[in-house]
Amino acid sequence: MSDHSHKNCKAMLGSLSEYIDGELPPELCQEIEQHLAGCDNCRVVLNTTKRTIDLVQMPVEQEEVPDDVRARLFKRLNLDDYLPQT
Ligand SMILES: [Zn+2]
After folding, report:
1. Are 45 and 16 spatial neighbours (Cβ–Cβ below 8 Å)?
2. What is the pLDDT of residues 35-82, one digit of tens each?
3. Where are the domains of the chain?
């Protein structure tokens, strides 16, 4: 049914932060959603990432999370760890 292969995972995870932020064009979102539908691995990553971001973005008495904090967050999540080992 799908020609899913894990080589798409890396590209997909590379766009994950933009995807979550809604910064991607609709065509790309659709591609990602299609990939997610067939890939448990990436769904887990997406859920984990979203949850972490939600935590960081709790409505505390704080300004928006600055970009560098967000960048560090993604780095700390170390998305590469989620990729299937070859
Ligand atoms: Zn995947």
Report:
1. yes
2. 999 999 999 999 998 888 887 766 655 566 667 777 777 777 776 666
3. 7-82
**51 CA from centroid of ligand 1 (Å):** 18
Residues 6+ apart with CB under 8 A from 53: 20, 70, 73
Q: pLDDT at position 79, please?
A: 66
Q: How far is the CA of 2 from the CAs of 5, 20, 36, 75, in angstroms? A: 9, 24, 12, 31
Give distance in angstroms: CA of 4 to centre of ligand 1. Answer: 8
The rounded Å distance from CA 65 to ligand 1 centre is 27
d(CA 52, CA 46): 10
Q: Is the pLDDT of residue 1 over 50?
A: no
How remote is the CA of residue 22 from the centroid of ligand 1, in Å?
19
Element (H, E) at 12: helix 7-14
